[in-house]
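Researcher: We plan to redesign the surface later, but first we want a full-length starting point. Tokens attached.
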């Protein structure tokens, strides 16, 4: 048994006086690594432990908080990044902009959304760099983008990939990271990641945890039980828990609800003979009763999207403005089977007995993939498939371990399945990010096969019954180039209109994140602290010194 597994098995959260903090999580650490660009087998909790963030966003205060950055100035088309003087790597080397230089080059190679509006950059000195924007850009875009950046690239370890093919870099599994953040990597096995304090971290005085574990509990139910026990786990990073489960948690288990800007949706394979057709995708949208999904899976933390259009639910009215009422809702609280049947008939399908068939006698359906261990997602997937099959589709739910679930989509080995329709986090508040995500979906390598279509001219119905012609990717990229919300809104409206007609994804549900920390032996951020609603408490509170052992 490795050191991580031994610790996970014999020390726990509440009741432990060893200085060990145990995070309950789902996923096999042995299969995961620290190359943040190779998203398929990189998992964010381990990365958040070892890599310092550029900056963060507080939903409590609706403001940005600096991490590795000491200052950020946005002046027209120039963005000046000034990093902390005490930013260093855990091997004792100083961080310099030589590291940033390699990071930005690799971000361009791997198609980072940053380069959608970045023209070039300049290294000013060892701690300062200047991003040169390709045109007028909404400053919020830049700030939100930078919340997604970590100090995760050390020149001497990463420069080997500068001349390699993108595919080679994205397959690289970085197993022994050099840390810039709160913790240094110790080991990993099938049971847990183990970390220890990084003495070179700029806020090292805030870190009073001897051993930090991210422990695999194999699914939501096991994590619930770990929190219920009062002795096994100190925290659960992101864990859905329905009211009947929450009622069983000890009083010292604290829930932190954070706007997720993330949620359950459907991804289509646009090369599939059925779901490559707009009419079939729209029929699916009409059949699904979104409110019943929420009711079945957890109205305590979930809510429907008013119209599937690529924009987070609570942001739609603001951004769509006078276009809002013209959008097709596809029936948020009803299964609109008549509209769905008409669409399929128009596309040449007929209902034979209990199922719809194309002209060759092929039914519409297949395996509908859902992540194993995500109990709320399993419930939502079962609800979706039940509604579709009752209408005449032929699906079966197939749950897969998270890595295999991603692989099905990355390899385009699917027809239609569950996948989050918003990239999540604070940046999803600005429509550019979710709209771009649905067209490109770099997390599955564009495996839904919409990338080429997004870069091609398309003609779709317009609001007045006529037609509009646009290149979706170009319109979406224009959003990021506008210097204000008002200038961005016309492009957002066009991109969202295209999204709700074409449905590259189908957005169904969004939610509040439920994150959990115990406060019997650990301090927690006050409810009015600007750090309270920052993703994620188990990391940012340590960063700020608000999660420490009680004395």
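Model: Full-length starting sequence:
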């Amino acid at each position: 048994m490795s050191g991580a597994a031994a610790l996970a098995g014999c020390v726990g959260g509440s009741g432990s006086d060893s200085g060990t903090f145990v995070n309950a999580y789902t996923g096999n650490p042995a299969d995961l690594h620290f190359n943040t660009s190779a998203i398929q087998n990189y998992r964010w909790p381990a990365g958040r432990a070892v890599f310092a963030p550029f900056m963060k966003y507080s939903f409590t205060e609706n403001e940005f908080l600096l991490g590795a950055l000491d200052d950020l100035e946005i002046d027209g088309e120039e963005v000046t990044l000034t990093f902390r003087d005490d930013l260093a790597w855990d091997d004792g080397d100083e961080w310099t902009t030589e590291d940033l230089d390699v990071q930005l080059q690799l971000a361009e190679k791997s198609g980072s959304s940053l380069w959608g509006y970045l023209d070039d950059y300049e290294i000013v000195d060892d701690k300062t760099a200047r991003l040169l924007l390709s045109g007028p850009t909404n400053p919020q875009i830049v700030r939100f983008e930078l919340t997604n950046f970590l100090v995760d690239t050390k020149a001497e370890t990463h420069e080997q990939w500068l001349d390699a093919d993108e595919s080679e870099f994205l397959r690289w599994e970085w197993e022994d990271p050099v840390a810039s953040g709160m913790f240094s990597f110790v080991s990993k096995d099938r049971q847990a990641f183990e970390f220890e304090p990084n003495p070179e971290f700029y806020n090292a005085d805030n870190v009073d945890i001897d051993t930090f574990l991210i422990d695999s509990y194999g699914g939501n139910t096991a994590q619930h039980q770990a929190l219920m026990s009062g002795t096994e786990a100190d925290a659960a990073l992101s864990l859905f828990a329905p009211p009947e489960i929450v009622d069983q948690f000890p009083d010292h288990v604290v829930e932190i609800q954070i706007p997720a800007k993330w949620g359950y949706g459907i991804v289509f394979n646009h090369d599939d003979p059925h779901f490559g057709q707009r009419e079939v995708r729209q029929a699916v949208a009409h059949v699904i009763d979104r409110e019943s999904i929420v009711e079945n899976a957890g109205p305590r933390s979930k809510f429907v999207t008013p119209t599937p259009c690529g924009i987070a639910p609570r942001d739609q009215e603001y951004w769509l403005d006078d276009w809002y009422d013209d959008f097709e809702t596809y029936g948020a609280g009803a299964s609109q089977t008549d509209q769905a049947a008409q669409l399929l008939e128009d596309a040449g399908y007929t209902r034979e007995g209990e199922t719809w068939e194309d002209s060759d006698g092929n039914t519409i359906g297949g395996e509908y993939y859902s992540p194993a261990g995500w109990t709320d997602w399993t419930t939502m997937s079962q609800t979706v498939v039940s509604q579709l099959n009752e209408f005449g589709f032929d699906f079966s739910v197939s749950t897969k371990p998270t890595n295999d679930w991603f692989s099905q989509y990355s390899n385009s080995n699917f027809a239609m399945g569950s996948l989050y329709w918003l990239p999540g986090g604070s940046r999803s508040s600005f429509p550019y990010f979710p709209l771009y995500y649905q067209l490109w979906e770099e997390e599955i390598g564009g495996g839904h096969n919409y990338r080429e279509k997004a870069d091609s001219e398309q003609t779709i119905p317009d609001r007045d019954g006529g037609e509009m012609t646009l290149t979706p990717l170009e319109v979406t990229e224009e959003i990021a180039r506008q210097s204000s919300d008002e200038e961005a809104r016309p492009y957002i409206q066009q991109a969202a209109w295209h999204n709700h007609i074409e449905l590259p994804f189908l957005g169904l549900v969004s939610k509040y994140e439920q994150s959990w920390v115990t406060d019997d032996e650990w301090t927690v951020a006050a409810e009015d602290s600007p750090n309270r609603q920052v993703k994620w408490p188990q990391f940012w509170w340590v960063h700020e010194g608000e999660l420490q052992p009680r004395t």
